[in-house]
Amino acid sequence: MWPFWWKGASGFSARSTAEEVTHGIDGTGLTAVVTGASSGIGEETTRVLALRGVHVVMAVRNIESGNQVREKILKEIPETKIDVMKLDLSSMVSIRSFASGYKSLDLPLNLLINNAGIMACPFMLSSDKFELQFATNHLGHFLLTNLLLETMKKTANESNREGRIVIVSSEGHRFAYGEGIRFDKINDEASYNTLQAYGQSKLCNILHASELARKFKEQVVNITANSLHPGSIMTNLLRYHSFINTIGNAVGKYVLKSIPQGAATTCYAALHPQVKGVSGEYLMDNNISNPNSQGKDKDLAKKLWEFSLCLTGEEES
Fold it and tell me: Over the chain, what is the mean pLDDT?
C-alpha cells in the first residue's frame, strides 16, 4: 500500500473515499449486483453506487440484515432503487436459485461486484463439501459469475455500455500456500492453515479476473474484469481472530483504512471513466498495481478455470 497521502496516476490515494472517487459520475441506467452487501465495504459500496443513481441488487445471506441496510440507505437517498435477494455463496443450490430468480426479473446487469468473503476461519466444509474459504471466496463467485454472464453480455450488447466485473481480492494472496493453489489438497484438514487458505482463495480471485479478461478479449465481448485489494480495514472478517481484532481496534485509526476508504477502489473500478477498457488488472488504492508472480501466471489461471468448471459442473461459457 502506498502512503495514505500519495496520489497515483489516477489522482486518487489510499485516503480517498468511495464518494470522492465517484464524485460527479452519473450511474443512472446502470444495474449492479453486489454480494455481501449488508455490512462493511459491501454496504458502503451499495450506498455509494445508489448515491450515483445505480439500481443495486443486494445479494445477501441474511435477508433481515439486508432489508435493514436497504431501509437505512433509502432514508438517506429516497429516490434510489435497491432490491434485496438471498444468496449464500457457500451453497451451489442457493447460488443457482439466486441466478434463476434474478433472470426471472428480466433485469439488465451492467456491474457485478463480487465482494462477499470470509477470512481465516477454522477448517470447515461447505454444504457442497469444499473447504469453506475456497468455496465462499472463489468457487461460489465463480459459479455466480458464470450463471450471470449471458445476462451481462446481453446487457452490454443492447445498451452499448461496457459491463464491468469487479472481484474483491486481497494483498493476502501473497501469503497463500507455497504452491499457490493446492488443487489436490483443497479439503486436506491435516495441513490446513487458516491464513494460507485465505491467501489461496484470494489468489484464486485474481486469477479468476485474469482469465475472465482473457476470454472476453478473445470473444470480443464488451465486458471487463478486474480484481483489487480494498486495503486493511477493521470489519467482521476478523471475527475468528480475537487477538488481531483487539490490536486492530486499538491502533486501527492510525494504520488502517476506514470503511468509506476501503470501498473506494471497488467503486472506482465499477464506475470511473478512467477504468474504461481496463481489464485483467489488479488494483489497489484506486490505482493499477501488481499482484505477485503467481497472480500473473496465465497457465495457473487456465488450470484454475478448468478445475472450477469441473467442481461446479458448469460448461464452458
Answer: 93
